[in-house]
TrEMBL record:
Segments forming domain Thiolase C-terminal: 288-410
EC supergroup of this enzyme: transferase
EC id: 2.3.1.9
Family statement: Belongs to the thiolase-like superfamily. Thiolase family.
UniProt name for this protein: Acetyl-CoA C-acetyltransferase
Domain Thiolase N-terminal: 5-246
Amino acid sequence: MTASYIIDAVRTPRGRGKMGKGALTGLHPQELLAQALNALQRRGGWDAREVGDVIAGCVSQVNEQGANIARNAVLAAGWPQDVSAVSLNRFCGSGLQAVNFGAMGVASGAMDFVVTGGVESMSHLSLGADGGGQDGGNVRLRERVYQVPQGISADLIATLEGITREDVDAWALRSQRQSARAIEENRFAKALFAVKDPATGAVLLERDEYPRPDTTAQGLAALKPAFVAMGETAVGPHGETLDGIALAAYPQAKHIQHVHTAGNSSGIVDGAAVVALASERYVKEKGLKPRARIRAMATVGTEPLIMLTAPAPASEKALRMAGMKARDIDLWEINEAFAAVVLQTTRALDIDPERVNVNGGAIALGHPLGATGAMLLGTALDELERTGKQTALITMCIGGGQGIATIIERV
């Protein structure tokens, strides 16, 4: 197996994921991904006929995002009909998994040039829009393991780790401040392209729409916990509440401290991102100048009720494969699904927080589920180049108790 190289990465700005309120809500999700494909192709100047496959993550694959959105986006982009495409779903890790599958393809020699990434229009299809919930409604599976909603899991993690409301709010405030600085200093400009109305050519959105740079500690502290009522909901066959089910599995918690709010959890947004990958042979043959290489990739499964603790073991697995230690990584992108996830991962791996999410994260910028992983990789790549650093690790928690991690290295 040879190397897999990152040629380029682009993304849309993230638009507010509320119908009629966000700048991208009037755009069909296929068109959102199609514009990302064309922006990538225009920057690289390569012939789309040479793309071996398009691999795109998308979580809610129903209605507008059903019918193999990746293939329809290729057609919507006007790319040659013989360019194949596939859509995949590994929940929040989908965009990064698409990159990893593409990297496997070019490294193995099965393909030479592939475009990967993801898309999610959460204004069109909100959380849980596919109707599957956590377990597809399988009652027999629930007898084996009851997968509580992620907000309950995040609060359970905070309780077990002794992470307080003040801790999660402080991280949320940091995310807002770091993202505000990054936007002010145009740190995202290299990857961003303006999304346009396909009918008129008018610009719909040029920069991330979700951040709230005027966020204060007092404002965050005033927000009510988001998952108290959910935790009190009776769902079990004998009237067990969601909190009760979680506590039955983790009795040491005694009582779940609900610390997560709308202000310290990831934002609901629309967006798309794509990454071009090439084999070593293709890079040499075409005289390309890759920006980085994929050094290691890993996924792991963990206990599915607590669900969100897998970024640490996934990162450890990737580090072992790369022959590295956590201290060898210059920059970390740990997806801010919930503030406690980042804090727990940082503690577990003994990471210097100053290396983590230096330009903010999903709490401030938003989390367009199927696209986020590819966005994080592009953000890490741009920041490595801006600062002259070498290595970055991107990791994400995933519903159902999984984690994913990818290590990239500048070349």
